[in-house]
Predict the structure.
Amino acid sequence: MIKVKNTFNFMKVEKKVRSGLGLYAHAAAKKMEADAKRNRPWTDHTANARNSILGDFGWEKNLCTIRLSGGMVYSPRLELDYEKKYAILIPTIRKNAAEIMRGYEKTIKGLK
C-alpha cells in the first residue's frame, strides 16, 4: 500500500488568490475613478464634485467589491436628478463592467 501525504496548503492558495484579486480590483477601481473624473458631463465651478469621485475596493467576507462614489452632499443629485444629464458614476460602472469581468476571469486563470 502506498501512502500519499496531502501537502496542499489551502490557506496559502487563498492568500494568493485574495492578494491577486485585490491588486486587480484596486487597479480597476482607480481606472474607473480616472475615467469618471475625465468624462464628467458637467462644467466644474469649484472642482469639488470631480475631486470627490473615489474608486476603491474592499472585502466583505469572501466577496471582493469594487466601488465608485461621489463624496459631495449634492453628488446624488448629479446622478439622479436633472433627467440624469449630469450622471457619471453609474454610466462609468456600466461602461467598464464587462471589461472588468473579463480581466477578473484572466486574473483568476493566471493565479491557478
